[in-house]
Amino acid sequence: MQTELITLDQKRKVTLTAYIQEVKGEFLYISKRPAILILPGGGYQYCSGREADPVAMPYLKAGYQVFILRYSVKEDAVWPNPLDDYEQAMELIRSNDDKWHLYKDKVAVIGFSAGGHLAACAATMAKNKPDAAILGYAVTKGEMIHQCEPTAPDVVSAVSFDTSPCFLFATRTDQVVPITNTIEFTQALVKYDISFESHIYAYGPHGFSTGDPSVQYKDTSICSRAPHWVEDSIQWLKDMFGDFGENSMAKPACKKHVTSDYDDVLSVECTFGYLRHYKNAEKVMTPFIAWLEEHKEEVARHIGPATYERTCKYGIEGLYQLADSRTFLEVLSNTKLSQEDVDRIDSALQAIPNVRK
Predict the structure, then answer these.
(1) Sign of the CA dihedral running 247, 258, 309, 293
(2) Burial 24-51 (b: 16+ CB within 10 A, else e)
(3) Per-residue pLDDT reduced to its tens digit, 110-122
(4) 41 backbone φψ class: left, alpha, beta (φ>0; ψ -120 to 50)
(5) Average per-residue pLDDT for the chain
(6) Rounded to 5 degrees, what are φ and ψ at 54?
(7) From CA 209, how far away is CA 191, in angstroms rounded?
(8) Dist. CA 151–CA 79, nearest whole Å
(9) Alpha-carbon distance 68 to 203, whole Å?
(10) Would you state the pLDDT for residue 134?
C-alpha cells in the first residue's frame, strides 16, 4: 500500500491523505477498486483524528482506496471554503482514476458531525457529487450548523431528486446533535425517492466514531449494536456499487432511486400513479385505463382483499388509491394480459423520454 500526503491549500492547511492499495499482481482479479473520501468531524473548528485513520482501516480491509480530507476550519471555515475543499479533493480523486486504480463512478464520501454536514452538502449541492454518502450523527439543520459555523447552509432543504444515495447512523440520546437532524434529512430523502438506509441506535454519545473501545472516552456508555454501522455501511456500499468480480464490479442490487420514476425513459418499472398522470404517456396509458375501468373488480381481487374491498366501496378511485404506489408491472401482473402484451406496453413506454419538471 502506498501513502501520499497532498496539500490542496497551503494557506488554509487543507490536505488530502491517500491510502492506495495495490491491484493486479497478487490481487489477480482486481484491476480497479471503489474509493471512499473521509471527512472527519470537529465542529468546523478542527478535524478529529478519531474520525480519520480509525475509520479508514475498515474500508481499506474491505478493498477500498481511501482518502482523508482535512478541510478548512476555524476562521477559514467561512462558507463555501469547506465545500470548495471537497470539490477540489473529489475532482483530484476522479481525475487520477488510472494512477490510483479506482472506479471514478464508485466514489463514496463519509462524514461525521460537522464533517457529516459537509458530506451531506456534497451529496446535495456539490458539482462533483459522490456516488454515495455515509452520514454519521451528521448536522443537517441550519439552526444547528450555525452554532458551529454561521455561514454554513441548511442541508435538509437542499435535498432533491439529484441527491446521492445515503447511509445514515446516529444515536437516540445524542445530546450534541439532536436526532431530528437525521430524521428530517431522512424524510427529505423519502420525498425525493432517494435510496437510503438508516440506523438510529438506542443510546450512545455524540462522536463515537467506529464505536470501538480504542477510540472511546473513558466510561462511555454506548449501545452494543452501534459499532455495527461500520460493517453495515460496507455491505450497503456493495448494494449500491456492486461487489468485487473478475476485473469488474458485479451489478448493484440497488439504484439511486427506489422506483424508476426518475429514470431517463419510462417503463413498466415506474409506479402506476406516476405513469397515469404523465401527460406524454397518454397514448399508452389511456387504452389501459379504459380497460382497467371495465375490469377493475377483477384486477382488485387479484391484488388482494383490501384492494378489492376498497374498489367495491369507492370504485376505480379506490383501486387507484392502493395501486398508484405499486409499479405498473405489478399492476399488469394482476391482469390476464399475456407476457407479449406486457412487453409491448413496456416497449412503447421506453420510447417516451421521462422529463421531470
Answers:
(1) negative
(2) eeeeeebebbbbbbbbbbbbbeebbebb
(3) 999 999 999 999 9
(4) beta
(5) 95
(6) -60, -30
(7) 29
(8) 5
(9) 28
(10) 98
Question: Does 5 score more than 70 pLDDT?
Answer: yes
Helix, strand, coil in percent for the chain, rounding step 5: 40, 20, 40
The tens digit of pLDDT for each residue in 330-341 reads 999 999 899 999
Is the pLDDT reported for residue 357 higher than 60? no
Kindly state the cell numbers that stand for 19: 491510502
Residue 353 CA, distance from chain mean position: 25
Average of pLDDT values for 233-255?
96
What pLDDT is attached to residue 218?
A: 66
Please determine, for residue 249, whether its predicted confidence score (pLDDT) is greater than 90.
yes
Residues with Cβ < 8 Å from 252, sequence gap 6 or more?
Answer: 239, 240, 241, 242
User: pTM of the predicted model, to two decimals?
Assistant: 0.92
Contacts of residue 262, Cβ cutoff 8 Å, sequence gap at least 6: 161, 193, 256, 354, 356
One-letter amino acid identity for 140? T
Residue 96 CB partners (closer than 8 Å, separation 6+): none
On whether the CB atoms of residues 337 and 253 are closer than 8 A, the answer is: no
Instruction: Give Cβ neighbours of residue 188 (< 8 Å, ≥ 6 apart).
Output: 156, 157, 159
